[in-house]
Fold this sequence. Notes:
The protein is of the alpha/beta class and 240 residues long. The protein has helices at residues 6-15, 90-97, 132-144, 162-166, 183-187, 208-220, and strands at 20-32, 35-41, 54-58, 64-68, 71-72, 78-84, 105-111, 122-127, 148-155, 171-175, 201-207, 227-233. The chain contains six helices and twelve strands.
Amino acid sequence: MPTAPKWLNDALEKIAPSFLRTVKVENSVYLNPYLKKVRLRGDFTTLNFDPGFTISLRVTPNDLRHYTVSYADQSKKAIEFVAYLHGNSVGADYIRDLQFDDQKIKLAVLGSDKQYDPTVKKQLIFGDETSLSLMLSFLPFLKRNDHQFIFYIELEEENKIIPEIIGLCNYKIFSKKEVFSNVESIQQLPLLSNQEWSDANIILTGNVNSIRNFRKALKVNDHKGKIYLKGYWLEGKKGL
Length: 240
C-alpha cells in the first residue's frame, strides 16, 4: 500500500506499534548522483534479516516507500539499504533529504518474502538499480552456503560501475531496454539453454515489463525450477 489517505497511515501507526521502529540516520552516502546508501541505527534485535527483508518508510503523510535491507550488523542495531534516486518522485526526494544524524525516522518492518531456498544449488537473481539492495542481501547467504549463483542486472550507462563499488560479484550487466525488452532476445542468453541451470531458482525483480518478458522466456524454455516475481516499478505507474 504505497499511497493511502493520511488518516489511514496515522491509524496504522497507532494500531500496529510492534511493527514500527524509531531510528536515526547514522550515515548517508551518495554512490553516484543516482544511488544513495543509507545506514539507520535503531533496535532491530528481535528481527531475523533473511534475504529480501523489506522495510517501509513514510516519505509523506500519504506515501509509503519500500526498501530492501542490504545489510544488518551483527548487533542488529544498524541496517543499510541502497536507494535509487529516479527523477523527482516523493521517495527519491525523501531519500535525498536524509542527512547524517536525522532523528526520529519512523520505519515499519515488513519482513521477507522467503524467496531464498538454501536447498537449491543454483540461483539466478535478476533486476535493475532498484534491485541492488536485494542482491546485496542475498550475497553472503549464497557464498556461505556454497551456491552457484549469478546476478543479471540491467542498468543505465551511468550506473554500470555501481555493482563493483558495492561489492557484488558473479554478475553480468546489460544495457536498459535491450535484451530484456523482448522475449526472443532473452531466449538467446546462453544460460537459458544450459540444462545444468534448468532447475535453478530464478528471482525476477525490478521493472515489471522486463520481469514479464523474462518469465515468458523461461516458460517457453520449459524452466523446471521455481520462479519468483516481485515488480518494484512500472513505467507510468506511481510507486508499486
